[in-house]
Amino acid sequence: MQNLRLASIFREMADLLEVKGESVFKVRAYRRAAEQLEQLPEDLADVVRSGGIERLPGFGQALVAKAREFVATGRVEAHQRLLAEYPAQVLDLLKVPGLGPRLAERLHRELGVGGLDDLEQAARDGRLRTLRGMGPRAEEKILAGIEALRRQGARRSIGEVLPQARWLQAGLERLPAVERAVVAGSLRRWKETVKDADLVVVTSTPAELVASLRAQGLAQEVGGGEDRVAVVLPTGLKADLRLVEAVHFPSALHHFTGSKEHHVLLRERARRMGLSVSEYGLARDGGTPDPLASEEELYGRLGLAFVPPELREGHEELELAEQGALPVLLGRDDLKGDLHVHTDWSDGRASLEQMVEAARARGYRYLAVCDHSPAVRVAGGLSPERLLAQIERIERLNRTLEGFRVLVGTECDILADGTLDYPDELLERLDWVVASIHSRMGQDAETLLARYRRALESPWVDAVGHPTGRLLGRRDAMEVPVEGLVELAARRGAALEINASPERLDLDSRWARVAAQAGVRLVVSTDAHHPEHLDFIEYGVGIARRAGLGPAQVVNAWDEKELLGWIRARREAARRPPPA
Ligand SMILES: [Zn+2]
Ligand SMILES: [Zn+2]
What is the CATH number of domain 156-244? Predict the structure, then answer.
């Protein structure tokens, strides 16, 4: 966890330096170093001791010195100095939509705003508008932004929480007092956003376990009692540990996986059968509970097929389980390729060849390279000439590959009026076209829907990327009526994306379910900008499973021939004039 702790110090320093107005290179260096640390498989202390730290990409002398200092003293002096200049709460200001580091610095310096509460007060008192360049409208926007932030509360992306929960799980399993530790709760149900982590821990010596939590650096705060321990991880994440004996593990795991709604239905069903369900097992007529050997046994004794955690939401899963009609859900291994990745031709951080290597290493059979189009200038969108050059490069690369195919693709911008950022003659040459909105996201619902309608009039648009445009914790979804988009996609035979990037998770499971029910195909993609990002796919698979999707409904679960056949057929159908 030292790795993650130093990474979060570096990230905080990057943000503070940005507020301070330091050079972008310095800021970026800290962010890159943080990323390196987050992906470092070895223990930071070992890497420092062996001198390997100096060979980490991006670690110059100054950063190496800070890593050494951190391992030796547990802190970084330069970090402390920054915190003396700006309270850490100033960084909360950056979470307000539209509020950048420049403005945060001025708010702090000129108005003494040190956090969200101060900011809200200053906006309500009309003090914000005294800043040069600010007016009543900006004040209103900031208030709305604060409110949106508060509404989201403390929910975080599963992509942020799950790796930490797994780290805790691994740490627990190394303790002599622990027989077994398993992640439960909404994380096990792959809920897109979660408040905290729940783990079920098998131990026969709870006191010893509690004592070693802090000693082993697994938690910075430990509270609670005999069978339930609340801990705060070094990263600040809260986790609830349920301590159980081995004999109660299956029923406890089921109990602490939830959801509440699922359990209400299950208990109701049990009651009608003269049974009662608890974290200790299944009891008849108020007797002592029988322990269960597995979750399967619990469902079996209630006359039900096993309900996968992702479907335990209190919808219609019990009826389906009773009829043996639960869907066979998509699995990670069903996926044959990723159909939305970037390379360093636009804003990706790895070469085309590196991305292909990474995809092959993950057992994929194809990969669609979808760099940005010219309108996304900050992301180095490809001019038509550059795209043609890339097509040629990919064709050459394909001739050297066996059992693997790189698809020439694009993430083509849908411009403000709904036209596409590349001409038809160019789109026609591509194997796979994802069309996405990256600008003017504040348009009203009607305009946005018309924009998608116009884009989907093109027969070449195979999929719509990150359809609602939300960025978790940073930007709300666009006002586009998703039902309307689903209807358009159904009519035009285009797929909708489940973007698995932890900051997007878009479509979410609720909308993915609606889309599938309307007969729309989904595509689970990572939008990877780095080889490691290909592993985000598990979050997309989680969403697909929560939506009840099986391989037949997800186009990248199909082999290359089937996929290309589908694309050809859908483009042909989309080119036919609509019936009069
Ligand atoms: Zn995009
Ligand atoms: Zn993208």
Answer: 3.30.460.10
